[in-house]
Design brief:
The chain is α+β, with helices and mostly antiparallel strands. It has helices at about 5-10, 30-35, 100, 120-145, 205-220, 230-235, 240-245, 300-305, and strands at about 45, 50-55, 80-85, 90-95, 150-155, 155-160, 170-175, 180, 225-230, 255-260, 270-275, 280-285, 290-295, 310-315, 320-325, 330-335, 335-340, 350, 355-360, 365-380, 385-390. The strands form six sheets. The chain has a seven-stranded mixed beta sheet. Strands 1, 4, 16, 19 and 20 form a five-stranded mixed beta sheet that branches. Strand 17 and strand 18 (about 350) form a beta hairpin.
Length: about 400
């Protein structure tokens, strides 16, 4: 008879091991490194969405001499500069019908445990929504270091995409000079990266020292941090010059430190590693293989989310990001808008990321909402170089 079960099955008590994720959540690595999270030194708030900053540069010139009994040489006042931008507004919501979660068990709990209002499920959905906003901030910051990002428009929805994407309607340019992109001329008159790093015979050490020399001239400080992924790290391990200077008998690196950071649920996550080579002891190479799903406004299935086509590397296989120590050269600017969380709320100005829950009726449920006004600002564009090291 259809639907029949055995006595053993009837009296068996289901046991649940818990609730698990098939993929780990992305880590806000660049936000953390550059102190762009709320409360960090690189996080700034401004009222509204209009963003701007001024420039007043110091002098590298020399004071002029004058003959005795003569007056001073008159010099021109230092020129002023200004940059204007507008915060990118992210706004999403998701609806949870109360009927679906009323008197259900919390996720991961045993049969018989009842959560009368489904708050466990609601909390997880809030974390899910917050993660999407964090992912967008991480995308914009990482692409700021690569020259910017694009935006495609579907109706009233703006979707961040890679700069130059076929569906891009407009782009957000971080104003990195052309000489600080590709093979890094850096105003020297010729490409500093003049040979590919996938060739073991390439003099990578000379290239990096030349980049530092150029950085001192065009920016004022050397680039001490180099961001690459595991593919480029493999090339460096096999580089003959790195082996010769570091010592062929020994490992080529001085130290290799695994990076562990908490995710959105405060669980420790391995997120790559930091390496100092014996041949370049003052430089830290940050190896990071993190990915994000870029180009779709909707959540992808697990099968689609993990495919190479949909997993956009934060640092491509062919590139390296050169930068100095975190400082005033870049920051996250959080704008604001007025938010009314219910019909009785007169509205309050909310800065940056702000989540809230709105009660709904017919059918009863909750609208989980969040808004985030902000933009990463590369305040000193020459402080970064985005090089093509494999070609």
């Amino acid at each position: 008879m259809a639907g029949e079960i055995t006595i053993s099955q009837l009296f068996q008590t289901p046991t649940l091991l818990g609730v698990f994720a098939e993929i780990k959540p992305p880590i806000s690595l660049f936000q953390r490194f550059l102190n762009m999270q709320p409360g960090g030194g690189g996080y700034r708030t401004l009222s509204g969405r209009n963003i701007g900053w001024d420039y007043f540069n110091p002098s590298r010139g020399l004071a002029q001499g004058r003959a005795p009994m003569s007056g001073p040489a008159r010099v021109n006042r230092q020129a002023l500069g200004h940059v204007s931008a507008q915060a990118f507004r992210m706004h999403e919501s998701l609806f949870i019908p109360q009927e679906e979660v009323f008197r259900t068990r919390p996720l991961g709990s045993q049969i018989g445990t009842v959560d009368p209002r489904g708050q466990s499920f609601v909390r997880r959905q809030i974390n899910f929504l917050s993660q999407r906003f964090s992912n967008s901030r991480e995308f914009m910051i990482s692409r700021m270091l690569r020259g910017g990002f694009g935006v495609k428009i579907e109706g009233e929805t703006w979707i961040p995409v890679e700069k130059g994407d076929a569906d891009e309607v407009f782009s957000v340019d971080s104003n990195i000079p052309a000489t600080h992109l590709s093979q890094l001329d850096m105003d020297t008159g010729s490409n500093i990266i003049d040979a590919s790093w996938d060739d073991p015979g390439t003099d990578v050490i000379s290239q990096i020292l030349s980049i530092d020399k150029a950085a001192e001239r065009v920016y004022g400080e050397p680039y001490r941090h180099i961001w690459i992924n595991g593919t480029v790290f493999d090339y460096l391990l096999k580089n003959i010059g790195m082996q010769n200077v570091g010592g062929q008998v020994f490992r080529t690196f001085e130290s290799l430190t695994e990076r562990n950071l908490p995710d959105i649920e405060n669980r420790a996550r391995r997120t790559g590693y930091d390496v100092v080579f014996r041949a370049l002891p003052l430089h830290t190479f940050h190896i990071y293989n993190g990915v994000l799903n870029v180009g779709s406004g909707n959540e992808l299935s697990i099968t689609d989310a993990i495919t190479t086509a949909n997993s956009s590397l934060t640092i491509p296989d062919t590139n390296a990001i050169f930068m100095g120590d975190p400082g005033e050269w870049a920051g996250w600017v959080a704008g604001s808008e007025v938010v009314a969380e219910n019909i009785l709320d007169a509205g309050q100005e909310r800065f940056g990321f702000h989540p809230w829950t709105t009660r709904t009726i017919d059918p009863p449920g909750w609208d989980l909402k969040a808004v985030d006004n902000g933009l990463p600002a590369l305040i000193i564009p020459r402080s970064v170089a985005y090089g093509t090291v494999v070609f």
